[in-house]
């Protein structure tokens, strides 16, 4: 080692000892990048300074109006448009969140790096720094466009909807002529306190839950039953049968639903006219809520079972024969083989998808609306006899312009679906932890 | 410690940002002043162009293009035609208007006027001396709160179609119509004397209105009293019984849909149906010479009051060339241009001179509907109307299922509750 080099080493050592992490942190808090400059990471520091300057120049004015709008929702009717301001405000929140994330990362980076320098770490060369940044930053760089897209395409509308639930946005209070106001939880309180809302809410909610549980369970049960049958070694022509059973899935759902709606027509539909008339029956499929519900559940079973069937068939084929042979050796009967080998296998592999079936049906707008527009009518109720929450929300929004109430109900729907999914996924995990597979 | 410090600093930053919030208002108020002086100015400068939103339909666009070109020839103002679906126009206008990208003139059915005015999207217009040129029903339809909001282009209503093979001539009175229903209905054979969408307030309205029912009481100045709902009064109950009777007797099948009705009529199994002119071509193709069209029958001595819909040109509140936009609206709805529109797009003109022109009245298909217009009444244009359809149609559906006319009282209660719940009724 030459004298020159050891000299340099020594100097950096002494510099390192005096290097103050808190000072670096404070510098970075004052302006992103300053701490990095102090740490002598000039490239990084300059980049951060440029980023923050650009951020402030480009967004400061936009966010200024945005936050003002978010709080006031505008002050002068016809000039300020509450909806625009609300959206601008929400975008500002997202921008601020992005900004803060970078800012906090910058502060932590300055502090950490300063600490390392004090600990005697040498300044990396340009190429080292670049390679390090590439190695650690690689996933982040590629995930960023997706996250940004997601923020604006998915997250922003959700925030907008949540925000609307706390405003007084309805037909009579619409921008640009009127300004919106924040009303806190008033919409939610009205939902349970005012009769026309609460009566309807609870009956619709009850049917929604029954619909979800019964229709989905039936479609899963039918799919499972058929999958087991078709998978039986004694069945011949498996491919043919499988193809036929998957057909209902191949026809677009809305076509099937509309055809069923015609077939179930009380007077002219094929079911009453051609099939049930043989037995002297005529069932009011579209005019009695009870029978409409039955018809809907049957149609959904028809529409939904092929997917479950295909799913289960795939899993069944992958179960090793050894399991069953072992069970036979131990004297297990048919039921025991099903209960302890088949069922755990297929449930383990498919549970998340089955849960999706439940949440999917909870919000299955298509079938409810296309079959009978949520009808038939029920005396003394705001929604139709078979309206589920989501189709009721649709009516509130597009037929009666109660945007605030629709948003409030949407939030409730959101919480129910989240709760449902969370509970079920938790159950699934505990299932896995038992480790009986 | 560090965490607390950074949280505190972030908080400080937020407060700083929020404290500086808010737009600079000086320029805005100046702009408003400018506009005021502009409005009071006498000479209005001719704009280079006007932006017009038209309904996104090929035939209509074709007709309007001819008319717009004529206006450009005459005045030198270029017309930019933008096709926006009529149902989307209000929402788009509420977003594009404030942003300065909206049209000067847009096209809407009159029953949305109340809603449009509530949102502050349209300004009233002064039709001046040409006001009398439009059909009275049309002008009454576009009048809201005593002001005219639209230059009517198109009127539409429904009438009666009959099958000449089954009835020699159209029933002139309700009694005759009921007789046809009584005598020619054979439900087991799928033959019906008279069919209509009787669980739809829009079509069944003549039977209600002619018996004395009203939706909202209309004052002499054309304004509606939305607290006075006449859908459960004596006349409405009477009409309700009529509707109920049709279903109870099986003269009109429960759960009837337009598809079923049209299918049966085209198969020649129905004597009389009530429907709009939009079905005329299809019926004619199926029935040929046997198809007859007429006005609605008389109920208690008066021709049934059908609902009339009016589509009109409206002036955007955000237009910067209001005077010329109104001039343009008058031009495209004058007699000559209304007739051009009728010929190309096939929609009935709202201009009285055009509506009574032989070209329209002698048309075997459109003629009877044009005649029906004078007996009709416009649908209420108040925003509260949106809360009426659902409960009213529900009540009719319940009547069709055999419930008593008490459902009409419930419907009125529900309409009132809905109006309050949606923020109106103050």
TrEMBL record, chain B:
GO biological process, one term: maltodextrin transmembrane transport
Localisation: Cell membrane
Transmembrane segments: none
Keyword terms: Cell membrane, Lipoprotein, Membrane, Signal, Sugar transport, Transport
Signal peptide interval: 1-19
Short name of one Pfam family: SBP_bac_8
Identification of the protein by name: Maltodextrin-binding protein
Organism: Fervidibacillus albus
Source species taxonomy: Bacteria, Bacillati, Bacillota, Bacilli, Bacillales
């Amino acid at each position: 080692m030459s004298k020159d080099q050891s000299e340099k080493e020594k100097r950096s050592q002494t510099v390192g000892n005096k290097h103050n992490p808190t000072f670096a942190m404070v510098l970075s808090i004052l302006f992103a990048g300053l701490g990095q400059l102090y740490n002598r990471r000039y490239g990084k520091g300059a980049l951060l300074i440029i980023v923050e300057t650009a951020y402030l120049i480009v967004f400061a004015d936009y966010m200024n109006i945005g936050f003002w709008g978010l709080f006031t929702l505008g002050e002068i009717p016809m000039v300020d448009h509450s909806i625009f301001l609300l959206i601008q405000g929400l975008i500002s929140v997202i921008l601020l969140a992005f900004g803060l994330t970078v800012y906090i990362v910058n502060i932590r980076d300055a502090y950490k790096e300063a600490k390392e320098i004090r600990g005697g770490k040498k300044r990396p060369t340009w190429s080292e720094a670049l390679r390090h940044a590439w190695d650690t930053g690689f996933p982040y760089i590629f995930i960023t466009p997706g996250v940004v897209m997601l923020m604006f395409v998915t997250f922003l509308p959700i925030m907008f909807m949540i925000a609307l639930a706390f405003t007084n946005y309805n037909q009579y209070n619409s921008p640009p002529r009127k300004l919106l106001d924040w009303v806190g939880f008033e919409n939610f309180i009205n939902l349970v306190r005012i009769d026309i809302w609460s009566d309807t809410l609870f009956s619709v909610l009850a049917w929604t839950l029954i619909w979800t549980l019964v229709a989905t369970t039936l479609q899963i049960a039918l799919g499972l039953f058929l999958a087991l049958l078709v998978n039986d070694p004694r069945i011949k022509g498996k491919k043919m049968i499988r193809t036929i059973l998957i057909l209902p899935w191949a026809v677009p759902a809305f076509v099937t639903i509309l055809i069923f709606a015609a077939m179930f027509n009380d007077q002219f539909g094929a079911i009453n006219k051609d099939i049930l008339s043989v037995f002297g029956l005529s069932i009011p499929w579209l005019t009695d809520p009870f029978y409409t519900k039955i018809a809907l559940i049957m149609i959904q079973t028809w529409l939904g079972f092929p997917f479950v069937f295909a799913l289960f068939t795939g899993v069944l084929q992958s179960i090793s024969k050894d399991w069953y042979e072992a069970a036979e050796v131990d004297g297990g009967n048919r039921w025991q083989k099903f209960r302890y080998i088949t069922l755990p296998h297929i449930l383990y592999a498919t549970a998340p998808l089955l849960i999706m079936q439940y949440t999917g049906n909870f919000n299955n707008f298509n079938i409810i609306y296309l079959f009978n527009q949520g009808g038939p009518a029920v005396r003394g109720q705001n929604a139709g006899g078979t309206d589920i929450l989501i189709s009721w929300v649709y009516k509130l929004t597009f037929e009666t312009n109660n945007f605030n109430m629709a948003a409030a109900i949407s939030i409730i729907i959101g919480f129910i679906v989240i709760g449902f999914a969370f509970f079920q996924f938790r159950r699934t995990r505990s299932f896995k932890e038992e480790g009986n597979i | 410690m560090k965490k607390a410090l950074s949280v505190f600093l972030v908080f400080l930053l937020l407060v700083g940002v929020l404290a500086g919030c808010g737009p600079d208002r000086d320029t805005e108020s100046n702009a408003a002043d400018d506009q005021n002086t502009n409005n009071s100015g006498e000479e209005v400068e001719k704009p280079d162009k006007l932006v017009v939103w038209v309904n996104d339909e090929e035939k209509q666009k074709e007709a309007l293009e001819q008319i717009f070109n004529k206006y450009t020839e005459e005045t030198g103002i270029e017309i930019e035609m933008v096709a926006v679906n009529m149902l989307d126009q209000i929402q788009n206008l509420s977003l594009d208007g404030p942003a300065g990208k909206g049209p000067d003139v847009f096209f809407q059915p009159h029953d949305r006027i109340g809603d449009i005015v509530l949102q502050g999207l349209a300004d009233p217009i002064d039709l001046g001396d040409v006001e009398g040129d439009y059909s009275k029903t049309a002008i009454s339809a576009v009048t809201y709160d005593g002001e005219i909001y639209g230059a009517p282009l198109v009127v539409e209503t429904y009438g009666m179609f009959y099958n000449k093979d089954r009835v020699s001539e159209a029933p002139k009175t309700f009694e005759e119509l009921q007789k046809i229903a009584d005598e020619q209905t054979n439900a087991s054979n799928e033959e019906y004397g008279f069919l209509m969408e009787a669980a739809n307030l829009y079509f069944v309205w003549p039977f209600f209105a002619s018996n004395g029912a009203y939706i909202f009481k209309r004052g002499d100045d054309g304004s509606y009293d939305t607290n006075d709902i006449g859908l459960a009064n004596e006349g409405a109950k009477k009409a309700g019984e009529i509707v109920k009777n049709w279903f109870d007797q099986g003269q009109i099948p429960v759960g009837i849909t337009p598809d079923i009705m049209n299918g049966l009529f085209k198969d020649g199994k129905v004597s009389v149906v009530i429907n709009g002119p939009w079905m005329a071509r299809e019926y004619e193709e199926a029935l040929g010479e046997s198809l007859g069209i007429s006005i609605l029958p008389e109920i208690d001595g008066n021709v049934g009051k059908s609902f009339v819909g009016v589509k009109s040109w409206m002036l955007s509140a955000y237009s910067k060339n209001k005077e010329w936009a109104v001039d343009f609206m008058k031009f495209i709805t004058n007699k000559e241009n209304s007739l051009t529109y009728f010929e190309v797009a096939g929609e009935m003109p709202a201009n009285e001179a055009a509506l009574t022109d032989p070209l329209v009245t002698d048309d075997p298909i459109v003629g009877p509907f044009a005649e029906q217009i004078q007996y009709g009444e416009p649908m209420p244009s108040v925003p509260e109307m949106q809360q009426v359809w659902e409960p009213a149609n529900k009540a009719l559906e319940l009547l069709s299922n055999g419930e008593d006319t008490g459902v009409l009282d419930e419907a009125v209660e529900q309409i009132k509750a809905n109006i309050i719940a949606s923020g109106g009724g103050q």
